[in-house]
Amino acid sequence: MKSLFVIKIGGNVIDNDRELPQFLDNLAALQSAWILVHGGGKLATDLSARLGIETQMIDGRRVTDKATLDVVTMVYGGLVNKRIVAGLQALGINALGLTGADGDLIRARKREHPTTEYGFVGDVERVHAERLGSLLESGFLPVLAPLTHDGQGNMLNTNADTIASEVASALARHYDVQLMYCFEKQGVLRDVSDETSVISRITSALYAELRTSGAIAKGMIPKMDNAFAALKRGVSSVIIAHADSVRLLGEGFSEGTIIVLD
Amino acid sequence: MKSLFVIKIGGNVIDNDRELPQFLDNLAALQSAWILVHGGGKLATDLSARLGIETQMIDGRRVTDKATLDVVTMVYGGLVNKRIVAGLQALGINALGLTGADGDLIRARKREHPTTEYGFVGDVERVHAERLGSLLESGFLPVLAPLTHDGQGNMLNTNADTIASEVASALARHYDVQLMYCFEKQGVLRDVSDETSVISRITSALYAELRTSGAIAKGMIPKMDNAFAALKRGVSSVIIAHADSVRLLGEGFSEGTIIVLD
């Protein structure tokens, strides 16, 4: 099977005028095919503030009323996505910016929660792996914004980590997929205040232990859950590392944290 | 050669909550392949106003400073494009939303003008017809926002009428292309205050005459110039008509104004 990297970058890279070009340079140097999934970062919060729309977060998820949905559709699907695509095209990389609505690539269900009204937040129902594959085979490198649709005309706001995990899993039937979560630290840390405490390898057993001890908490929990979900669905390996580490993909990776089932 | 419609809709349809769904229904009913090019309409001006960014127009072109470029990238590339794409997907149409940066589909040069600083406004240099063709052959129906890029990492604001003409012309080597400009009137009118005065057929000679008499003026001039440019480059016919007339495409068209060379 052909090799494919599914790479997720977060807002901290996108918002950084020095780190984003460096990341795109590294990405452009990769020899294998890839799919990039980007978050939105501070820009959506900034635009909401300028428009007088209050930003409400519950468990790290943005509560998305209609006005906020318009903001994230503009910022994620327009500003951020096209900044990345134009930047990659300037490096000679044939990037193609997409949301889950485009080509019906990622369909989601509006989240129903017994007590919390998340608004226009979507939980992924299915990824159209064949169409993403067809774009890859035509030489396009997809850049996915963290937006899906419900098939009834509504865009939905969907967590970028989840999209990366779902896309990687769906394509694992067709490609040898490695999933990489890029973030601002060197890897998963045993002690969050010590950048040298990177855990190089996490198994299911160790993850259970680290959750119990509280070493893994907060925002890292859904990321780890997404990683294990992808591994269980056929993704070869999941790496959590600093965005700079993307340069090492495909060359025998040696930085950050690798997640394996056991 | 296969038949292809390149259809441009303007802001008046996009901004209208009744007309847009009607237009998308008509589009979804077409049997031939098509490429849709949309304008932006009032939404960009509205967002600029809410953000305290002044909108300046010169000869119907929006002067695009950096802040305005971000606004049009968000509104055209994000909000409007995804509203149309999600609406079409809800009708079972495999729409794919794109800007000129995506897949390097439309590259432009930043406009240099001896006396006017238009800012980030792009004049089309080339359309990647093969890649648009490859998307069509893969079953995607492209929905193009009026945005291009300069190949150096910058998005550029480009007139939607011009994009429609350039795309139609570039694809005329591969398809039998009909170009349709949809707008709010029934066709080109001999008397703008009389909706029944539609001119059914305009040749180069009649156009010269109508310009001299002043019957065709203002915003209609660049539209007509784009129409004739497309005809000279191999497009089979150009139609200027009300958005409702899109339902008649491919059935022996009988509404609006048809433009022919002679």
What does this protein look like?
Two copies of one chain form a homodimer. The longest helix of chain A is centred in the N-terminal third of the chain and has 25 residues. In chain A, a hairpin with a 2-residue loop joins strand 3 and strand 4. The first copy, chain A, has a single domain, classed as Acetylglutamate kinase-like (Carbamate kinase, 3-Layer(aba) Sandwich), CATH 3.40.1160. The model of chain A has no long low-confidence stretch (mean pLDDT 93). Chain A has an eight-stranded mixed β-sheet, sandwiched between helices. The first copy, chain A, has a two-stranded antiparallel ribbon with strand order 3-4. Chain A is α/β, with parallel strands linked by helices and 262 residues long. The relative contact order of chain A is 0.16. Chains A and B meet through helix 4, strand 5 and helix 5 of A and helix 4, strand 5 and helix 5 of B.
Explain briefly what this protein structure is.
With 262 residues, chain A is of the alpha/beta class. Chain A has helices at 11-14, 19-28, 42-50, 66-90, 129-137, 160-171, 204-213, 220-232; strands spanning 3-9, 33-38, 57-58, 61-62, 95-98, 106-110, 122-127, 141-144, 147-149, 155-157, 176-183, 201-202, 237-242, 257-259.
Question: What attributes characterize this protein structure?
Answer:
homodimer, 262 residues, alpha/beta, Carbamate kinase, eight-stranded mixed beta sheet, two-stranded antiparallel ribbon, 8 helices, 14 strands, 35% helix
